[in-house]
Amino acid sequence: MICLDHVREEWVRPALQTINLWTPSAENFILGIGLVESGYTYLKQLGNGPAKGFWEMEGPTEADCWTNFLAFRPALGRAVNSLRVSPEDPKSLIRFPLYAAAMARVKVLRSPVGLPTTPEEAAAQHKRWYNTALGATDPAESVKLFKEAWK
Length: 151
Known about the structure:
Layout: H1 4-18, H2 24-37, H3 59-68, H4 74-81, H5 92-95, H6 97-109, H7 119-131, H8 139-149
């Protein structure tokens, strides 16, 4: 696994600052989501699944974020787009970790609840609004990973 402090300092914080959505809680949550989703070990979902990048976002989710959210927020869309070299690259979530972190934040921004303030809240919100009810993540197991990410 990559050093979490490096992920925080080199990818998560700069991405969230670039898109003007940085807060300590957002940083902790996005760092924790990547830890739960991939352990910062895999860039593609194991077993030929469709999820891409450390934050394991699927292509239809990425497209939905662009079509139904970022299209109506052009300044945010430009900021997110600035974090990848080519908007046409179908592997942007794999090749550009800052972009992938920003897209995870966009997905979180779309949830109807505020950012979590504790690792326990983070685990519950991650399951409900990021991983989904059908996803494999167990919130009880995720709490310990979110505790690693929380500062």
